[in-house]
TrEMBL record:
It catalyses: 5-methyltetrahydropteroyltri-L-glutamate + L-homocysteine = tetrahydropteroyltri-L-glutamate + L-methionine. GO terms for biological process: L-methionine biosynthetic process; methylation. 5-methyltetrahydropteroyltri-L-glutamate binds at residues 18, 119, 124, 523-524, 569, 613. Keywords: Amino-acid biosynthesis, Coiled coil, Metal-binding, Methionine biosynthesis, Methyltransferase, Repeat, Transferase, Zinc. Residues 448-482 form a coiled coil. L-homocysteine binds at residues 439-441, 492, 607. The active site is at 702 (proton donor). Residues 3-317 form the Cobalamin-independent methionine synthase MetE N-terminal domain. L-methionine binds at residues 439-441, 492, 607. Pfam families: Meth_synt_1, Meth_synt_2. This is 5-methyltetrahydropteroyltriglutamate--homocysteine methyltransferase. Pathway: Amino-acid biosynthesis; L-methionine biosynthesis via de novo pathway; L-methionine from L-homocysteine (MetE route): step 1/1. Belongs to the vitamin-B12 independent methionine synthase family.
Amino acid sequence: MLTQNLGYPRIGSQRQLKKACEQYWAGRISLSDLNQAARLIKDENWQAQLEAGIDLIPCNDFSFYDQVLDMSLLLGVIPQRYAPVLSEVKTNKEIDLYFAMARGYQKDGLDIIAMEMTKWLDTNYHYIVPEFTARQEFHIFYENIFAEHHSAKRLLGNKAKPVLLGPVSYLLLGKEKEAGFERVDLIRKLVPVYVEVINRLRQQGAEWIQLDEPCLALDLSKKEKEAFEFAYRSIANRVSGINIILATYFDALLDNTSLAVNLPVRALHIDLVRAPAQLDEVLAEIPDHLQLSLGVVDGRNVWKNDYEKSLALINKAVGKLGTGRIIIAPSCSLLHSPIDLDLENNLDPEIKSWMAFAKQKLNEVNELRQIAEGNTSLLSANKEAIKSRRSSAQVHQQAVKDRIAAITETDATRRSAFPVRQQLQHERFNFPLFPTTTIGSFPQTDDIRQLRSKLKKGELTAAEYDRKIEEAITDAIRWQEETGLDVLVHGEFERNDMVEYFGEQLQGFLFTKNGWVQSYGSRCVKPPVIYGDVSRPENMTVRWSQFAASKTQKPMKGMLTGPVTILQWSFVRDDQPREVTTNQIALAIRDEVTALEQAGIGIIQIDEPAIREGLPLRKAKHAYYLDWAVRAFRISASSVQDSTQIHTHMCYSEFNDIIGSIAAMDADVITIETSRSQMELLHAFSNFEYPNEIGPGVYDIHSPRVPGTGEMVSLLIKAAELLPVRNLWVNPDCGLKTRKWPETKAALENMVAAAKLARQQI
Ligand code: GLN
Ligand code: ZN
């Protein structure tokens, strides 16, 4: 029985990669310094995997920015607009081209925009989307991969296994940049380059290679399935002497099972954490020659593996295939898990004993192999940990479970239908047409951030910190009043992050010191860990909202993060369904909503920017997910009087396929991002005849550019052509925390002026 790993975190246990890249971008270190930093990380990673006893250790899973961008460079898929970078840059051409594609290039009189970035399947990792043209050619351009395999081989010998994104997924995860062709048709031109790459790796001594084809776990068209057939048959015909592992993950193969097991490769990897039931389906169809890699250790969460559960799967596969055809592995690349639990010296020891990060997960893979081969003495410690978690009073709160069991449809429904509520709210607030507001946060200046770090270090007392926050809120309110906004916000100055802020105050959450995972490029996030039943010991935001409300006669909007977003941006429990955890969070938010209302806050916004990204990969599962996600939002929002106005916010606007669910959330007002599409994206709402109120963002907050009043007026007029005017609000696309004050003030002054002009023109 072999063991393998599919990929290891590359940011370094101290986020060295982030620091090195950012210094290189700032021109403070040289390319050789950058390469040296990378070498140290790679060596540390390979060493850790060797020590964990892994047989097939990934190389080329390292990346300075993103593994999909690495593929584009390897294959010469370089959009035309970057040609000047190559001709202008004199040294470090390739790496500077690479970073230009990732981040844009503003230098030497050039101003070239970056490539688009999007979420890697259903993870929070973002990749750089390949851009294809009708006449796209492929050739080996960036030779880095060969050097990396070479150095991996020096340390790992035959264990070094290069990892590439497979040809079909590489095409499918990209985009056509012009009309008149389908990117999947490029497979015929692409495969010969893959053949060349694989043959060169084989000549360098690679015995195994891993081709990732996550798209095999998605809904595929007939043509896409044919592309898989074509690609892997061609590769098999023209490559020999190297074992190809085809890696799938994040969902089951389902209707792609026959296709996948019959592709001419040495081994198939399947994700048995996300989709344990697919083992039976795969075993039923697997041909005699194929080896099976069992992804039994969760690569996307922080919990210790339940060995007994994994062994049941392993034993079933061994029973059918014998040990010689089995490989034990994590479910997917460990890119998505934090690196080393040993570095956490501040966790509750009991909870820590239930956890495993990347390094520990590899150890689990190795132990599972040993147990499967008969060394059952390794089972007992694991059993203890699993048992302690299952029954721990830190996890299980009967009162929370009872409340979940008692939720009724009434709890998830506002007292009256929207038209009744709208009438009452209009009477109560008496807003003009096109009421103006913002999405919640105001600039998180260095001064504000420093307050928090001083408080942490003890350089500021809690009382001093609170006074400073009060000052910031008071200033922001005075300024909003002067500017003439209709619904004010307190500015979220007291919040480090919209999820962390709530997690820190809720029971059932913990925070690690070093549990970083890569989000994109040098950006890392440290998601909270939800380990137990969630409850809310005390009010979380009332103090600040109430203070803010006391400083003005205008309505003050309370500001909360919604249950689905809190779930989606955390590591979650794997011992109960996601929807149960979400409902627990929903009840906590509901109580906060109630408390805000009782404190006199008449408008409450519950942000749900992550609802869409929680969509399952397979269409057949969308309805079920949307159902519980919408219900959780409604549970959080429905305790209030009809005259209390509930807002929600989502900072994206691809709503076409989920508009019914958005409407079912039944928020009185939704604010969304639309400005960059010139209100085009509002069509989803108008075609659906979306009944409730809506604030389509009138300006893009992602850059410091100050929008003119005229352009915002014309966007408002456009919006008024698509939706009833009485339902329209005026606001920016998203919160303003990443902006500076001067542009924020200028933009909002123009926005208020635009609303006034639009009122006259309508
Ligand atoms: N209220 C949050 C803010 O203004 C919303 C952020 C978000 O949508 N991501 O920052
Ligand atoms: Zn937003």
